[in-house]
Each structure stands twice: as structure tokens, then as C-alpha cells.
TrEMBL record:
It comes from the Bacteria. The lineage of its organism: Bacteria, Pseudomonadati, Pseudomonadota, Gammaproteobacteria, Lysobacterales. It is found in: Cell membrane. It comes from Luteimonas vadosa. Its EC number is 3.6.1.27. This is undecaprenyl-diphosphate phosphatase. SUPFAM superfamilies: Acid phosphatase/Vanadium-dependent haloperoxidase (SSF48317). The chain crosses the membrane at residues 39-55, 88-113, 120-138, 158-181, 188-209, 215-233.
Length: 247
């Protein structure tokens, strides 16, 4: 008796069919990655990894576990104390929120609206306002008390986790990088944004008003929120500055 799988005209034996299917799938996958590879990388690096990191931090905090790096990180920062560093980090702390990030956020939204880049304006506004609201909600949800290893030269009285300065600076940085992602300014934006975010985060640890884990949580939460907003506002393959940005 003949095998039915090999007798039908125009069909391949089962092993050959499987090989051909795998080759076709590989070709389709390669074509997809060529078109959407950067977007997938952005989603993975800017959304999935930070989301996992934030979840790990929250789980430890809820379980009452001590982060092994928190106190040593604060002690290293405090050992750096000097008049020069005091001035630097007080200035960076101020720029990281009320006297830097907030005015730039407002000016960026207004500037985009005036230039009729309404989609970009919506993206920026939703990112910065939502980040601030998320920070307030998270602080009251976790109610973590501020560090008290020494008397800070710039004390704070609100809850500690996650850091509002870290979230605000990272949100602004991520917004700028994403808006510049498809332009020749991308790498300059990344370098400036990264330096600013790190200095603001260090300033809060140096001043003794945040644990390092507060900073990490603020960074990861802000990245997740901003990248998610970008994905929603620029869905369907749209890019900032592509065509008339009015809808």
C-alpha cells in the first residue's frame, strides 16, 4: 500500500512540509523585524524591563524586606559631603523638579501647541501629568518613611517611595528622547537626558531624603508610563514630526 501523505499530487512529505513551514516563518519573521524591530526593542527596553524591575521593588517593599543596597548607598553618598557638593546637589535637586522640570514641561506643551504639533503636545501633557498623579498615588499607597541616617540640609516631610524627582526628571527625559528618536538629534538627546536624570537622582540620595530604591522605582515607573503613552499616541506606525501633526 502507498502512503497517502506522499501520493497526493502537489504535496510534500510531512518532514519536507515542516522544513518549508519553518523557512517561511523565518522569512516572515525577518521581514517583520526589519520593519518593526526598533519599535519592539523600544517596547522591551522601555516598557517590559522597567515594569519587571518596578514589580520586584514593590514586592520587596510590601514584604517588609530591606534592600541590601539602600543604606550602603546612602552612606557612600554622605561620605562625599563637602560644601561644593552641597551647592551642586541642592541646585540639581531644585532643577529636578520645581525650578527646572516643571517649567520645562509647561513650556514644552505650550510650544508644541503653538507650533500646531497637537499630537506631540498631547503625548507630553499626558506623560507629565499622569506621572505626577501616579507618583502621588504610589507615595500614599506605600507610605514609606524618609531615610533618617543624618539631618538633611534640605529636609522633606512627604512619603519617600517612589521619588517624585526621579519620576519627574525621567518622564521629561523619556519624552524628549522619544520625540527625538527618529531624528538626527537622538544620541545628543539620550546623552543629555541620561546625565540630567542621573544627577537629579544622585542629588536626592546625597541630600539623604531618598533611598536608592526610591530613585530606581521612580525611574522605572516613569519609563513604563511614558513609553506606554508613546505607544498609544503614536500607534499605527506614526512618528513624531511625520507629516502634519494635527490629529
Amino acid at each position: 500500500m502507498s502512503n497517502a501523505s506522499t501520493d497526493k499530487p502537489g504535496t510534500l512529505p510531512a518532514p519536507a512540509e515542516a522544513v518549508e513551514a519553518v523557512k517561511t516563518e523565518a522569512r516572515v519573521g525577518n521581514a517583520f523585524l526589519r520593519v518593526h524591530g526598533r519599535r519592539l526593542l523600544l517596547v522591551f527596553a522601555g516598557l517590559l524591563l522597567p515594569l519587571w524591575g518596578y514589580g520586584e521593588l514593590v514586592d520587596h517593599l510590601r514584604d517588609g524586606e530591606v534592600f541590601a543596597f539602600d543604606q550602603p548607598g546612602l552612606e557612600v553618598a554622605h561620605a562625599m559631603a563637602s560644601a561644593g557638593y552641597d551647592r551642586l546637589f541642592i541646585a540639581m535637586s531644585a532643577l529636578g523638579y520645581l525650578y527646572g522640570v516643571v517649567p520645562i514641561d509647561i513650556l514644552l506643551v505650550l510650544g508644541l501647541a503653538i507650533r500646531r504639533h497637537f499630537r506631540a503636545g498631547v503625548f507630553v501633557a499626558a506623560s507629565v501629568v499622569g506621572s505626577a498623579l501616579l507618583n502621588l498615588a504610589a507615595k500614599h499607597a506605600y507610605a514609606r518613611v524618609r531615610p533618617s541616617l543624618w539631618n538633611s540640609i534640605a529636609p522633606e516631610t512627604t512619603f519617600s517611595f517612589p521619588s517624585g524627582h526621579a519620576m519627574g526628571s525621567m518622564t521629561l527625559a523619556a519624552v524628549v528622547v522619544l520625540l527625538c528618536w527618529w531624528t538626527r538629534w537622538r544620541w545628543i538627546a539620550i546623552a543629555v537626558a541620561a546625565g540630567f536624570v542621573v544627577l537629579v537622582g544622585l542629588s536626592r540620595i546625597y541630600l539623604g531624603v531618598h533611598y536608592p530604591s526610591d530613585i530606581l522605582a521612580g525611574w522605572t515607573a516613569a519609563l513604563v508610563w511614558t513609553v506606554a503613552n508613546y505607544g498609544l499616541v503614536y500607534s499605527g506606525g506614526r512618528r513624531p514630526w511625520q507629516g502634519i501633526d494635527v490629529a
